[in-house]
Amino acid sequence: MQNLAEISAQKTKSTGNESPARILITEDEYIVAFDLKLRLKKLGFEVAGIAASGDDAILQNQDSKPDLILMDIQLHGEMDGIETARHIRAESDVPIIFLTANTDQASMERASSTNAFSYLMKPYNERELQFSIQMALEHSCTARLLREAHDLLEERVKARTAELSASYIALQNEYRLHQRTLDELQAAQIIAKQADKTKNEFLATISHELLTPMNGILGMVDLMLENKPSRQQHDQLSIVKASADDLLEIIHGLLDFSRMQNGTIECVPTIFSLREQIASYLQPLALRAKEKSLSLNWHIAEDTPGVVVADPNRIGQILVNLADNAIKFTDRGEVKIKVTRLSQEANRVQLRISVQDTGIGVPEDKQKLIFEPFVQADGSHSRRHGGVGLGLSIAARLVNIMGGKIDLESRPGKGSTFHFDLWLELPEAPSLTTACL
Description:
The protein is of the alpha/beta class.
């Protein structure tokens, strides 16, 4: 494919002196044709041939491909110059200049219909001949360059149109693919939500269904223990009771988890003594720690308000889950609980409750996942510690529900420290709902 620069170079070559234009003379009078040949050579043109008839002119034009034809209107044979020009112009765009001594109107109109460039009236001088030829060659070259430029532009437009069409089709295909993927994701999301809803409903239903027989089992065990069983029976019933208590704790955990998933868990603020409430929660755990030869201690800073407004049961649930988890994963050493004041305003106080142990610690790769449901620090198939991995997840979600935050600091083999920060209302505050958002 030629570019415009190449076409322009061709124009320069066609009109310059490097390659003289080749001219076909069509004249039935030999003396006139020979004289015209000499004049053309004198003017610097090359004569491609001399034709005396229309048929000869057509054949020589096909063979020699001249740059211009000087055509006499009166020719030997059946065709005159005008008819010959019409045939030649039908198969090529070579410029034609008519040579004639006849100026009748009919002949001029016939000549114009052939799209010839111009005509020269006999007799003519060399200056007129040279000017007409140069103008015809220039016009022909310019017309050819314009046609080639037009063809080149059309090719480029077609190529660009094809590229744009291909890009448009590709974009349409990509859009349809993305739309199909989006539809599949939306369908999968609907299925996942429905599955999650079904799971939560199942957890809530099965937990409620398990509570009744478990309470029955515990009630019967308590009755049997009150009937003064033998020592062996007492030990056996104690094992049954401990196992039932553990199972009941798991059931309550599942219930709380399903309520959190459904957004139905409640937080009821009341006025309570922080020190008394924390002691009541931790004293039963002290017995469990003692069974493992662990020390369970708690300390409440002196600047901590004695009475606050919040949901004591939820605070106790968070604390018990963290402390029970610390006891479970600690074989030697101690578990410490601290309550400190971080900040205080006119009607509320921010407290930090931390639970520190000397247990196995949490690997770094699990510290970000430890608050997810059903995740434990000791996650191997042969793990020695019970539970379903809901305690920390429930604690974290309760802290979030109460508008606080929970965090973990741990080193494997060195122990862990869980702490959560809560804003608690003071009794004189007009609103009692801040702690339970």
